[in-house]
Design goal:
The complex is a heterodimer of chains A (234) and B (107). Helix content of chain A is 79%, strand content 0%. By secondary structure, chain A is mainly α. Chain A is globular. The longest helix of chain B is centred in the N-terminal third of the chain and has 26 residues. The chains are: A mainly alpha (234), B mainly alpha (107).
Chain lengths: 234, 107
């Protein structure tokens, strides 16, 4: 019993130690979303409901903007679908580390898959000192912080000045470091550079958000073939 | 909007957010995946993050044209070096925010 308790404590401790930088980044972004939602006329309980049911930062920002612009509900739902398609890739990649795990756990885990939790859990799984329960703690701690931040934003956010303390850069800073965590060899660096190149040109040429999934799939495929050729030469 | 309209909207958004996150995991975790798929999926994290990040650094978001002089990109360089050196997510986020905030005064 005490051993079991100790194990749970360790899981919570390591999970939260890993999650706190994500939470740090989520807080200002969530606050900003709450402010925007409040200005767009959403009551605080609607923000709470949205963060609970949707939990997808970029889709929630788009939703608020579309509501403010008077878009139809169906259009908002369709846009959300397109914007979140990239998570099919992340979910598939996580499956490699969660083989044979019972479906109840996976269903609960899937709810918390975001760009950030995905990146950090993948890096941790690959380095080896990680298990699914710690990953679950990361996912759901981030979710709780996101919920609290968005709701507080909608309640008190009007007092936060626009762009204060560089909060606009929190997400970019997070992505930069999460990207660094993935660079575990030459092939990863090359794939990342190919993805950057393709995504920028895709972004410039084609309106909408298809550049995320499109560039990711192209770059991973290119990286895969480079890896194959390199292995064969060896 | 009424309560039930909000509920309809967010339940719909929730469904199209949750299903892409859950279905591949539920399906693939109980399948024997071929080696090539595992290798390919191993390259997905770096590709997705790079694709999310790069356009926001190298082009303006308002009218989508190539721009190598934006504060986002200039601040990204020291932030990247810091991340490579320390591998600290919290520190990187804080440094990036600080530099971007300062850049707002200088640039």
């Amino acid at each position: 019993m005490t051993i079991e308790k100790h194990r749970i404590k360790q899981t919570l401790k390591q999970g939260s130690a890993t999650a706190w930088p994500i939470c740090l980044g989520y807080f200002p972004i969530g606050l900003a979303l709450g402010v925007l939602a409040q200005q767009a006329g959403l009551p605080w309980w609607a923000v709470a409901m949205m963060s609970l049911l949707v939990f997808a930062g970029s889709a929630q920002f788009i939703c608020v903007a579309m509501l403010a612009a008077g878009a139809s509900l169906t259009a908002i739902i369709l846009t959300t679908f397109v914007v979140n398609l990239r998570h099919t890739l992340m979910s598939s990649a996580l499956a490699v580390h969660l083989v044979g795990i019972q479906r109840r756990f996976l269903a609960l885990f899937a709810y918390g898959i975001t760009d950030e939790s995905f990146a950090i859990n993948m890096a941790r799984f690959r380095s080896g000192d990680w298990d699914r329960w710690k990953a679950l703690v990361v996912n759901h701690l981030a979710n709780i912080v996101w919920f609290v931040a968005t709701v507080s934003g909608s309640l008190v956010g009007q007092f936060v000045p626009q762009g204060a303390f560089g909060i606009d850069y929190a997400l970019t800073g997070m992505f930069i470091c999460l990207l660094v965590f993935q660079l575990q060899g030459r092939i990863y660096i090359m794939t990342g550079m190919i993805a950057a190149l393709i995504s920028v040109f895709w972004y410039l040429m084609i309106p909408g958000d298809s550049y995320i999934v499109g560039a990711s799939v192209c770059a991973a495929t290119a990286g895969y073939f480079i890896q194959c050729r390199y292995r064969r030469k060896k | 909007m009424t309560f039930s309209e909000y509920l309809f909207l967010f339940a719909g958004m929730g469904a199209v957010t949750y299903l892409p996150r859950a279905l591949p995991l539920l399906y693939l975790a109980h399948k024997k995946m071929p080696g090539w798929l595992i290798d390919w999926l191993g390259l997905i994290p770096v590709a997705v993050l790079s694709a999310l990040l790069a356009p926001s650094l190298f082009s303006s978001t308002s009218d989508r044209h190539l721009d190598f002089g934006r504060p986002e990109l200039i601040v990204a360089l020291p932030t990247l070096l810091f991340a490579l050196k320390t591998r600290s997510l919290g520190g990187t986020v804080l440094l990036g925010m600080l530099l971007y905030w300062l850049a707002g005064f200088c640039l």
